[in-house]
Each structure stands twice: as C-alpha cells, then as structure tokens.
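INTERNAL TRANSFER SHEET
From: sequence group
To: structure group
Subject: Cytochrome c biogenesis protein CcsA

Please process the attached sequence and return the structure record in the designated field. Keep the field labels unchanged so the import script can parse them.
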Amino acid sequence: MMTLAILEAFLTPFGLITLLLATLLLWASPILAHDKRVLFFHKIAATLANASITGLLLLRWLISGHLPISNLYESTMFLSWNLTLLHLVLSHKKIQPWIGPVLIPSATLIYAFTTFALPTKMQQSTLLVPALQSNWLMMHVSMMMLSYGALLSGSLLAVTLLIVKRLLVAKESYLSVWGQPFFSAQEKRSLTISPSLTFHYANYFLQIELACLKVRQEALTEQLDHWSYRTIGIGFPLLTVGILSGAVWANEAWGSYWTWDPKEVWALVTWLTFAAYLHIRLRQGWEGEKPAILASVGFFVVWVCYLGVNLLGRGLHSYGWIQ
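Return from structure group:
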C-alpha cells in the first residue's frame, strides 16, 4: 500500500508536467511553421500525460477497491483523462491543427484545478457511503462523465467556431476597407512603377489575400461545425443512458426515480439544451453559426450541472460539496 501511495505521489505532478509540456509544444507549432518534430514531441507528451492519468486512476482503484469516480477529485481527473484520450484519438492530420489547441489546454486547466484548488481532504480516497455501494455506480457515473467529456469537447469546438468567425470577419472587413479594385488595363501594360502603381500593387495583393481568406474561412468553419456536431452526437446518447441508469439507481436506493434534486434538474436542463441543438440540426437543417450559439450555451450548462451544483448547491448528489 505504501508503494502505491509513493507511485501516486510521483504520477500526480508528472501528469501535470506532461500536460503543460504538450500545451506549450502545441502552441509553439505555428510559430515554428508546423515543425514535424515539435508535433512529434507534442504527441509523445500528450500520450505520456494520458498514460499517467490512466495510471493514477488505476492506482486509486486498487487502493479504494472501487471505480475511482466517487468524489469530485476523482471525477475531474477522469474528465481530464477523457479529454486527453479524445485528443489522441482525433489527432491525425485533418483534425490536428485545431482539435489540439481546444482539448489539451482544457485538460491541463481541469487537471491543475483538481491538483491545486481542491482541498487535500477531498483528494484522499475514501470508502463508499452505503448509498453508493451499488453495481449501478460504474454504469451511471461513467456514462455521465464520458458524456460530459464529449459534450464539453463539442461545445468548445462550437465556441472556437464563433471566435474564428468573428476574427475572420473583422480581418475581412479590414482588408475590404483598404483593398481597391484590381489594376486597369493601362496600368497592367505600364512598365513604370510609379507611386500610384505601387499602391495598386499593394491593393492587388490585399484582394488576393481577401479571396484566400474567404476560402480558408469556409473550410475551417465547416470542419469545426462538422466535428462539433459529431462529438455532441456522441455525447448526447451517453448523457441519456447516464440519466436513465441514474433514475433506476435512485429508485433502488431512495425508492423514487426522480426527486427534483438540483443535480437532477440541471441534468435535465443539459439534456434539453443538447436535444434542442440536435433537433435544429436534424429537423431544421441549420448549420454553422446559429447552432454553434446554442452549443456554446450548452458549454456553460454542462459546467453548472457538473461543477456548479456540487460547489454551490446541497442535495442528494452533494459528494463534491465544499463547505
């Protein structure tokens, strides 16, 4: 048992260091013109980070004797593991340029919050209370945490879409103000580079950049929208299974399928938010910015459901409540 505790004490800072390294290497990649070696070392760091978090969860499982998602520390660690795993699965050439900068910094912030912000007492592994000693623990909590990871990832991509849209629109507006029509036929035939012609040359390249910008904008926003929709499409069924299994577990433990506990209410709000998102995508055929706004709202709803209720509210799901 002492050896396991020492190993856990080593893996905890090691996971944070590798996550920070993966984030810095990812941010350095555009500066170094997408150097393949930088991306290679980033992937190694991200893999080591995921492996260290996996090791931590397995160690806590061995120490406590139950699935390590029974308190806020373990569940946030599991969420960080979920995001790093999703990044590794999706980190191929077509997705890597923008999926990493969204997921890896998020996993790093969650891991840092788990390590430094939560009280030491809450980080300790404890025996399960009688209400949690059920086979439904693994089914319900694991499904909810996996759904949180997928929904947060899809929502973050939607937020990124909106930010990129605004930045590109601002740049397009700037170029359109300074850009002028292309050369006249007479100026094209002229061999003298006058100050006026030099100004038109500058405007000509601005027009080319504006045209390229529109092409890049459409390609980037389409990719962000596509993968945001697909990721949320994975998270929503997981959330549904998690809520249903929780209802069955609640009936077994408390004699009622639904008690309008704060956590249950916000889980329902989360489900309705993403149900509305999928409805407007599937039935209304909306794409791009409009559904991304709703998905961005869902990002905050998920955090209120997962973390806000545990920190600020008290109820049957108060295992993470901080006094």
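Handover comment: The chain has two domains: 1-119, 133-323. The chain has ten helices and no strands.
Transfer complete.
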